């Protein structure tokens, strides 16, 4: 039996949640509750639906056009172990993993000692969009992020170099 996730929704094909055609899983539950959030219905930890990771993998595997999977929210790191399992399984199908989080890269990497599931998910993430959405820094012209404080990070390069490596998509 695979892990279960509480999700707010799934979009089987998206071109606005990362590069290429993407399968998007929206985590249910978010501690950040950023004012002006694009997905306020994902804030409650009680809402959404429960689904097995293997069922999500099966859905994603049906589409050979997918470049990757995107985890959005809500806050995927609050269900780090389940999303890490999902990332591992879709990675074996050849998909890349993009994760949106209200935490910063630094908060995640230093928080791994207390929250080991964060380490599991960050290690299986290729691209990370980090930082809380800030309404006063909102910019609709930005690709794949909502406010100017957020960063798009190449996780593998950042881990290898020991510093944040941002990318433009």
Task: Give a structural overview.
It contains 5 helices and 7 strands, in the order E-E-E-H-E-H-E-H-H-E-E-H. The longest helix is centred in the middle third of the chain and has 12 residues, at 80-91. Helix 1 (53-61) packs parallel to helix 2. The chain has one domain (4-161): Aldolase class I (TIM Barrel, Alpha-Beta Barrel). The chain has a 7-stranded mixed β-sheet. With 169 residues, it is an alpha/beta fold. GO terms for molecular function: 4 iron, 4 sulfur cluster binding; [formate-C-acetyltransferase]-activating enzyme activity; metal ion binding; ribonucleoside-diphosphate reductase activity, thioredoxin disulfide as acceptor.
SSE-based structural type? alpha/beta
Main beta sheet: 7 strands, mixed
CATH class: Alpha Beta
Taking all residues together, what is the mean pLDDT?
A: 97
Based on CA atoms alone, the radius of gyration comes out at: 15 Å
CATH architectural name? Alpha-Beta Barrel
- Residue ranges: pLDDT <50 for 5 or more in a row? none
Question: Which fold name is given in CATH as the topology?
Answer: TIM Barrel
- What general form does the structure show? globular
Q: Specify the CATH homologous superfamily.
A: Aldolase class I
Family: Belongs to the organic radical-activating enzymes family.
Function: Activation of anaerobic ribonucleoside-triphosphate reductase under anaerobic conditions by generation of an organic free radical, using S-adenosylmethionine and reduced flavodoxin as cosubstrates to produce 5'-deoxy-adenosine.
Cofactor: [4Fe-4S] cluster
Keywords: 4Fe-4S, Iron, Iron-sulfur, Metal-binding, Oxidoreductase, S-adenosyl-L-methionine
